[in-house]
Write a structure and sequence with these properties.
Arc Repressor Mutant, subunit A; 3 strands; WH_DNA-bd_sf; DNA-binding transcription factor activity; transcription
């Protein structure tokens, strides 16, 4: 019998990439941070990889399950690295495989950024 208590896992607060488009003009820093995320998704291979991770059962995908995007494995790794650098994905190594997850707070912030502008 263990005398340790489990602590609850708290969801991180959403870190907005930027204010909604109809709120005010973006600052230079907000525009730069937002552009990095959208640039990462502007590549068709990266967009396919991002979509594969986002739609994968359980909310995460092993690199071995999403590598079939028409490019060589080193190129897949390069694109996944760019998505991570943009803050869109996180990863965890388990043995010899790496598992990727979409960063939900960033995705929610980007969605809010676009949704409010679309409804205006």
């Amino acid at each position: 019998m263990s005398n340790t208590d489990l602590l609850p896992v708290l969801e991180p607060e959403a870190v907005p990439c930027c204010p909604p488009l109809d709120e005010r003009p973006l600052t230079a820093e907000e525009a730069e941070r937002t552009a990095v995320m959208f640039k990462a998704l502007a590549d068709p291979v990266r967009l396919r990889l991002f979509s594969s991770v986002a739609s994968h059962e359980g909310g995460e995908a092993c690199v071995c399950d999403i590598s079939d995007v028409g490019v060589a494995q080193p190129t897949v790794s390069h694109h996944l690295k760019k998505l991570k650098e943009a803050g869109l994905l996180s990863s965890e190594r388990r043995g010899t495989w790496v598992y990727y997850r979409v960063e939900p707070t960033v995705l929610a912030a980007m969605g809010a950024f676009l949704a409010r502008a679309a409804s205006a």
